[in-house]
Amino acid sequence: MKVILRKNFDQLGKVGDVVNVKDGYARNFLIPRQIAYQATVGNIRALEEEKKQIQKREAKELEEAQKLAVELEKVSVTIPVKVGEEDKIFGTVTNQMIADALKEKGFDIDKRKIEITEQIKSLGIYTVAVKLHSNVTASVKTWVVRE
């Protein structure tokens, strides 16, 4: 049975691909979960319209992410931490701490989007990446200071 994928599916392909699968797999798994629908002439036309809407939405999300990235580049956050001997901090600076500091500045960023490449275990200035979109990443200057 030929089906059109509505969602990206690792084993089969990407959105809009027309793939050939066994009838039972399509009827019992793909179609009920709305991962795919049967490839008919009407569904192919509907898919083209759906692709246009998806492209418009993705373009809008990309534009918003780029605007937010420009604003985030201008921001620096300060994270006060408790320190021991030789300016070593207790624990590490986490994604949540940076997300909270950004929230205080007016940016509502999910902690899972913040990427800390090296663990922050001492005082200093660090650059932290924030992945806003698959193609847009912003850098936030993070100051780790004594509490």
TrEMBL record:
Alphabetized PANTHER family for the sequence: 50S RIBOSOMAL PROTEIN L9
Single annotated GO MF: rRNA binding
One BP term from GO: translation
Chain segments annotated as coiled-coil in the UniProt record: 37-75
PROSITE patterns in alphabetical order: RIBOSOMAL_L9
Organism of provenance: Stygiobacter electus
Similarity comment: family membership: Belongs to the bacterial ribosomal protein bL9 family.
SUPFAM superfamilies per the UniProt record, alphabetical: L9 N-domain-like (SSF55658), Ribosomal protein L9 C-domain (SSF55653)
Function: Binds to the 23S rRNA.
Domain Ribosomal protein L9: 13-40
NCBIfam families the record matches: L9 (TIGR00158)
UniProt entry tagged with the keyword Ribonucleoprotein: yes
Keyword Ribonucleoprotein: yes
Protein name, as recorded: Large ribosomal subunit protein bL9
Domain of life: Bacteria
Transmembrane spans: none
HAMAP family: Ribosomal_bL9
Keywords: Coiled coil, Ribonucleoprotein, Ribosomal protein, RNA-binding, rRNA-binding
GO terms for cellular component: ribonucleoprotein complex; ribosome
